[in-house]
## 1
Amino acid sequence: MTIEVFGVQMNLMGLVIGLIFLGILFLFYRVQKSNKLDFTDLITKDGISVSLTKVLQLIGGICATWVIITLTLTGEITEGIFGLYLAYVGAIEGYSKFISAKYGYKALSLKSANALAVDEGDPSSKLSKD
């Protein structure tokens, strides 16, 4: 279904998805500004350095979701493909838990890592005790 806006033909579904995407970005911006959640934790391993595993999981999740949405909109999705997608998404979390348990890894947020560094007297931390 298309609509005409200012003389331009637009796909209504594409317009709705675009507006939802912009709304989600605005929501993320407000949450980040409120200091209640730090989105850098999505790609960092200790709150400071970038985690290759987290970045690759994020990219893989985004690409897989894009494929599923595209196949759904074109009507070409099958139960097998959707099942593989669900297995992949579930395996991301399972693999992360397995690695954390095996190597004793404890995920820290950016704020927690800086607070821990200050408590341990790390001069390279961004925060000070003052």
## 2
Amino acid sequence: MKKRLIDELPDIAYYAFDARAKTAAEFRGKNADLVEDTLSELNRLYTAEMASVMYGADISATPRFDAFALFVRALEALVSSLHLATHRQAGESLVLMRLSLESAATAAHICSCKKALAQYGKFTYKSTSAISNAKKIVPIIGELWGSISTMAVHVNLGHGPYYQPSEDGEGTVGTIEVPLAEKRSAPGQDEIMLTLISLISNIDLRLFEETLMEKSPAYDGWLQMPGTQHSYVCPTEELISKYHDKLVRMPDFFEAQSSTPGPERSAE
């Protein structure tokens, strides 16, 4: 029987796992130092959360218990976002970054507002109010959340083909990449994604500090886990400024992607 062309197609297991594993390995090898930096920032949030449990911080009653669960979810979302970033699935990674921001912001809101807590308990809570409230603690969170929403959550031209000028300069050529092997990196994309994850990790940590820690009575400028004698200090606000400043100096890859003109379209 003559072999069909479709028989040469890699099976779905290769597409779902092996091709992405190759991309992730290439990503980590190419960006080893940046990946380590990002893991170090995630470790700050991870350590703060786990230490609260290990040292018996007072988080067992509502709303602090619910808030702690949301902060754990925020960390989980960021770690999953990192995995997707190493697969060079930028849009999907950004969706989880937004979920992380919303989870941490909601945790902070339900601990500071009885109305928000009541809405949260009745499944009527709107996450946009969490972001508005979190701006009091981290002013840049609103702009960041809005940009991620525009780039990745709301479907637009940036989710479709990648358009670039044709070789003759007379038009545009659209490309749709199906990653059956290592997925290529657009210029600057890897560093932007890792920088975003580092930034959001520190924003989440700052909200965690404000929500589930208190000022240390013994050490000026330090925080203390409530109900314990364990103190904690981290230059979180400085780190937020560091990664935000780095991000705004980068070429705006996502804006360039979404604004690259495609062929003219008309609605019918």
## 3
Amino acid sequence: MESEFLISIPGKGLSLEEIAFSYLELIEDDFNITIDEMANYLRCSYDYVQRNIAPYIYHVYINSVANKALFTHCEDSKYVDMFTKRKLFSRSKFQQFLLKESALLVDRQRYYFEELSIASRDKLMGLAEKQEQKTTTKMFETMALQQTSLLYSKTDLMNKVVKEFPVSELPVKLYSLKDLLDGIDDLNLKFRYKVSVYRYLEKQGIPKMKIQSLIRYRREDLENTAVYSLPLVVDKKEVLTSIEKMLGTDV
């Protein structure tokens, strides 16, 4: 039974050249992603994509006639490496499918030094210079944790709230837990143990991107390093205001 997502290209009565350019037009326009590329992007197995994603993406078959036509008349195309593939999929439909099947899971809010007022930042930098054993960001984190413990009970902080948000734009790159364990050199992320990865993700408040049954992490979130993170139950504005009052810069 033919799939509703199969795009048929009629070849009857057409020359090899006409067949070649019918396929090439589709490839150049949109049908230029393979299962291998999908799996690499999602950091999952070929079989996972073949079972759970590929059947629902519009695609074309490169049969033996199309293969011969493409290699005969389009061998100079930048897509020549794709001519040997059995199936080529619509890149735009793949992207749309992922957005529909994805959600961002957030259970912590991230805090950045730049969120403090200029006066507070200057004050913290001055205090850090006097206490050489502490960095400015470490002082910021310590003060935030102190204020949080004053404003919220341990029970409040243990109340885990997870919010789910739609994904409106596909990430530049995704990473699996295994990728993090293996280390990401260009982000200078290296861990010896799985527990270290979990601690880092929690401290940084890195959101999870859920794609069907897959859990992945976005490169942009890993690049955008926070000073610390706190549970969603904590009112961020309240904590930052408390720090500024403590510093005497809440004018």
## 4
Amino acid sequence: MLMTGNAIRNNVVPIWNEVKNWSREDRANLYELLEVSLNEKQTPNDEVENVLDQIDENLMKQCFELAHQDYLAGKGTPNSQIVDAIKTELGWR
């Protein structure tokens, strides 16, 4: 999810309205540029796998057990409350 401030959000629609008026070729070029830009910033799978391999299995089991105990004790926050808090924070409510 993209988190932006009000000033940035208010500028996105006018920019998109301008892009919609571009020729099909110009829009395709923009799409390719954005796709290349986004792909350059992604973490290669090998790096992700290396990080995951370094995580201690016992630590992950302990984290799961603690989270599960909290869930059973009713200490968790329901997803609906989290979604409501995010929407409020973003000004969507």
